[in-house]
Design a protein that fits this description.
Helices cover 41% and strands 22% of the residues. With 264 residues, the protein is of the alpha/beta class. It has two domains: 32 residues, no CATH class; 223 residues, Vaccinia Virus protein VP39 (Rossmann fold, 3-Layer(aba) Sandwich), CATH 3.40.50.150. The protein has an eight-stranded mixed β-sheet with strand order 3-2-1-7-8-11-9-10. It has a three-stranded mixed β-sheet with strand order 4-6-5. Strand 9 and strand 10 form a beta hairpin. The longest helix has 16 residues. The radius of gyration is 19 Å and the shape is globular.
Length: 264
């Protein structure tokens, strides 16, 4: 059946004069497979996913890496008021807003970046809009992806593994990572905890930032062999299945969920 439909489609649509129509169909299809086009889709997807993952524990532990002003952490607290949420934001201006939200909402906020090694790194943001949600450890994100001049901050960096050990966390129900291109480095800094099995679910972004950082989805796939991958959508999680480059390597806005496989 698949071969027949493909043959009919090719006979009708595989024409140069229909190229723009095919591109439009391709764009529409991307929405249907979990690549949203606006913030509303992202917010609906977050809410649907959080309700699913947080109900597995009466007092879930959540690490929010790249918390910005605290909207995600606040959403977690709204859905699960007894949750233990640790939110990390390295930008000093943005952190002031995060700290105010944390004090009001009841979660813990830290003025720190997370990566694969502790120390000090440079954080880049817009020169004319410092304190944005696009601040990144990669200058190219601001200057190439967003075609803007950049401003620089020196920020303190820790690893997720160090934080988990220092705070004696025996489980992490959700590790959320939104760091504008350095998601893989954050997960490399959590490898000990990932391998030990204490992190149940991971949410991270995969998008155009990965072009300038030269990070493929295959890198995440190989780092997380004990996890199944899904794209988030307003209607629920969409399974990605076994690795196929065409399915996985789409460098557009998307939120990915990795759920730890049940023990055999």
């Amino acid at each position: 059946m698949k071969q027949f439909v493909t043959s009919v489609y090719k006979s009708i649509f595989q024409r140069k004069q229909l190229y723009k129509l095919n591109r439009f169909i391709f764009w529409l299809s991307s929405i249907g497979v979990g690549m949203p086009t606006d913030g509303n889709d992202v917010r609906k997807s977050d809410e649907s996913f959080l309700k699913m993952v947080l109900r597995s524990s009466a007092n879930p532990t959540v690490l929010d890496i790249g918390a910005n002003v605290g909207n995600y952490a606040s959403q977690v607290m709204q859905i699960s008021p007894k949750a233990q949420v640790f939110a990390f934001e390295p930008h000093p201006k943005t952190f002031k807003q995060l700290e105010a939200t944390a004090n009001k909402t009841g979660f813990a906020a830290f003025n720190l970046a997370c990566s694969d090694q502790p120390g000090t790194l440079q954080l880049f943001d817009y020169a004319d809009n410092d304190g944005s949600e696009h601040a990144s450890l990669y200058k190219e994100v601001i200057e190439k992806v967003w075609s803007s001049n950049s401003n620089t901050w020196d920020v303190s960096v820790i690893t997720v593994d160090h934080f988990i050990e220092e705070n004696n966390l025996s489980k992490v129900d959700l590790l959320k990572v939104d760091t504008e291109g350095s998601e893989l480095r954050v997960l490399l800094g959590a490898k000990q905890s990932i391998d030990s099995g204490i992190i149940s679910a991971i949410q991270f972004e995969f998008n155009a930032m990965n072009v300038v950082t030269r990070v493929y989805f295959r890198d995440f796939y190989d780092l997380l062999p004990m996890y199944d991958f899904y794209r988030m959508s307003p209607g629920g999680l969409l399974p990605l299945g076994p690795y196929q480059a065409f399915v996985y390597e789409q460098f557009v806005l998307q939120n990915i969920v990795a759920l730890r496989k049940p023990p055999k």
